Each structure stands twice: as C-alpha cells, then as structure tokens.
Amino acid sequence: MIQRIESLGQTSSWQKMLASSFTRIPDLLDYLQLSAADIDVSEEAAKQFKCLVPLSFAQRMQKGKPFDPLLRQMLPIGDELQRVEGFIQDPVGDLKANPIPGLLHKYHGRVLLLTNSGCAGNCRYCFRRHFPYDENSLSQAKTQQAIHYIQEDESINEVIFSGGEPLLNSDERLLAWIKQLAEIKHITRIRFHSRLPIFLPERITSSFIATITSSRLTPIMVVHSNHPMEINTSVHHALCKMHDAGVLMLNQSVLLKDINDDAKVLADLSERLFKAKTLPYYLHSLDPVQGAAHFHINETQLHTLYKELCGLLPGFLVPKLVKEVAGEKSKTGLNPNFQL
Ligand SMILES: *Cc1c(COP(=O)(O)O)cnc(C)c1O
Ligand code: SF4
Question: What is the pLDDT of residues 30-73, one digit of tens each?
Fold first, then answer.
C-alpha cells in the first residue's frame, strides 16, 4: 500500500513535467534567448510534425546558440519542406511488416510492439514521422490480439516495447503487459526502446524499475542518445540506477549531419555512456525519410568518420554502424573495417 502511494505520487510528478513541454516555436526560442531571425524556423514544418520539446531536454540546450546540437534535433526548420528524391514516407518498410495492428514482426525471434503512439519529444529526423500511429497503437482490445500472436509463435523469445514512446505508458499498464508475457513459456526477454530516460530522467522512478524487473523475464533497456551533452547528471543517475537493478543497458544513436558527425563527439558520447554503465549498441545511418534529407551524410564521409571513431575507442565502446534496409532479415552492417 505504501509503495502504491509512493508510485502514484511519483507518476504524477513526471507527468506534470511532461505537461510543461514546449509545443510552440516562439516559446522555445524565447526560452533559449534566440530570435526567429537567427534561424530558419518553419511553422509549416511544425504543422506536418508537431514541435514538441520536453523542458528538461531544453534545459540542456545552450542559450543564445542557434546551432546547439540538441536544439537542432528538435527545432522545426524550413529545410524539412524540401522534397529530395529517395527520401520517402515509409523508408524502413514498417507498413509491410505489420501482421496485426500494433505489432511488427520483421526479424527472427523478436517482435516489436507499438505500445504508445506519441513521444515525449518529436525528433525531426524520426523515421516514424509519417507512420499512421492512430491506426496502430495498441488499445486494450488489440493488446489481446497481439498477445495471442506471440503465444502462437514459439520462435519468438523476445518482445520489444517500442512506439512512439513505451515509457509514456503508466507502470500499471506496463506491469499488466509483463505479467501476461511472463506466462508465455517461450518468451525469455523483454526489451524497451526508449528516449525518455534521456528526455525526462525523472520517469525512471523506483516504481518503474521495480515494474520492469518484477518478472522472470530478463529486462533490457535500449536508450536513444545522440550527443554527449544530452547526458547530464540526472540522466547519468537514471541510467546507473537501472543498471544497478539488473537491467542490461544499451544505447542507440542516429548519425546526423552537423549534430554528431564528428568522431570526437561520438567517442565522447561512448565514454559518457560507459561511465553511466550503458554500452553503445547501434549507430544508425539516417533512414531516408521525407523531411530529413538535410541530416544526411554520404557514404564516403560516413566510412571516414567511422574509421576515425574506431581509432579512438576500445572495441566494446564502438557502436555497430548499421542501416535499416526494407525487407532484410536484420539490420544491415556498414562497417568498412570489417568487411566479412
Ligand atoms: C530494429 C528492429 C528490431 C530490433 O533489432 P535488433 O537487431 O534485435 O536490435 C526488431 N524489430 C523491428 C521491427 C525493428 O525495426
Ligand atoms: S523519441 Fe524516437 S520515436 Fe520518438 S520522435 Fe524521437 S526518434 Fe522518433
């Protein structure tokens, strides 16, 4: 009972923090002491994909710097309106891998659940910016359909909670999922793909950690961070806390022009993650999604950068360089150092 009261109190606190997110470009610019004249902001881009930035994340942006690497990930700008050949609405083939609503089954052994349609912040490069979430997020009724699909296929041993943002679900809802999955014998692992530990580390409450470590299923947390300045003290503690509770901690990043396309920045990110007991997992080359072409890095630059990164770090701190190719059986490796 005491634990329940505590959990309700904490829940309302991170939810309150979410409510104070920036949703209007002028408010964000004011807060950062910038004027629209400094940057090519675009209300039209924000109409296509809403401006949404958690206050906690904005607090890590540098005031008065229009090219701040955290700001650039989140600010709707005119470049998004360019139509560039090859940059399309569903670059990773999600719509084809959608056997039932809310569930993606692309790869052997694991399924991905779209447990929440929204995100706490809208990253401008997101490959799901055009995904029809409304038809696909899991309502309570569709949840049973997904559970049934997982029960029927014994080749599945891992369930990935994704979204949108899976950690926007309440602990109660997550617990209900986990309990049902733990009853399915062939499931051994649960994995969370989340940017919330970075956007809003306050989400990582004791109650949340108790929830994801409560069953026989091995919990894995893949956070999403692209730049070392995202990892402040609160994020550091949130990551350490999950690790210390027995959660395998991994990070994935997206390679973004003028944000983290610099071997030293990426090496610094790996080092900071390691200090926070989190290992680099994937470095994704950008999915060619419509509206994100200005973040693109060509293959030659990508290889040069990655070789340089390999020269700066021990192997276990180098993320795997991958891209997602629609229809393939796994992510596709791009590592120029190890052509197998
Ligand atoms: C990326 C992805 C996964 C996870 O792939 P891993 O290589 O296991 O990290 C699983 N399902 C879908 C649909 C994915 O896009
Ligand atoms: S948090 Fe992840 S899913 Fe959400 S907008 Fe950002 S990149 Fe996309």
Answer: 999 999 988 999 999 999 999 999 999 999 999 999 999 999 99
Measured in angstroms, how far is the CA atom of residue 188 from the centroid of ligand 1? Answer: 16
The SS3 of residue 110 is strand
Residue 187 and residue 300 in one domain? yes
Cα(118) to centroid(ligand 1), Å: 19
Angstrom distance (rounded) from CA 180 to CA 143: 10
Ligand nearest to the CA of 157: 1
The answer to whether residue 89 sits within a structural domain is: no
H/E element, 158: strand 158-162
Chain-centre distance for alpha carbon 282: 12
Collect the ranges in the chain with pLDDT lower than 50. 1-9, 339-340
Residues 290, 172, single domain; the answer is yes
At which of 81, 103, 127 does a domain end? Answer: 81
303 CA distance to ligand 1 middle (Å): 23
Kindly list the distances between the CA atom of residue 81 and the CA atoms of 76, 126, 234, 281, 291, in Å, as whole numbers in the listed order.
Answer: 10, 15, 35, 32, 6
Judge if the upstream peptide bond of residue 64 is cis by omega within 30 degrees of 0.
no
Residue whose CA is at the smallest distance from ligand 2 atom 3:
164
| Predicted confidence (pLDDT) per residue in 232-280, tens digit | 999 999 999 999 999 999 999 999 999 999 999 999 999 999 999 999 9
Q: What is the reported pTM?
A: 0.94
Instruction: Look at residue 2 in the predicted model and tell me its pLDDT.
Output: 41
Among 81, 105, 125, identify where a domain stops.
81
Host domain of residue 33: 2-81
Q: Are residues 69 and 105 in the same domain?
A: no
Ligand 2 centroid distance, CA of 2 (Å): 34
Please tell me whether residues 241 and 322 are part of one structural domain: yes
Query: Closest-lying ligand to the alpha carbon of 123?
Result: 2
Say how far residue 257 (Cα) sits from the centre of its chain. Answer: 18
CB of 123 sitting under 6 A from ligand 2: yes
Q: Best substitution site from 123, 124, 203 to test ligand 2's pocket, by max atoms within 8 Å of Cβ?
A: 123
For residues 146 and 76, state if they share a domain: no
Of the residues 75, 90, 127, 128, which should be mutated to test ligand 2's pocket, given the most ligand atoms within 8 Å of the CB? 128
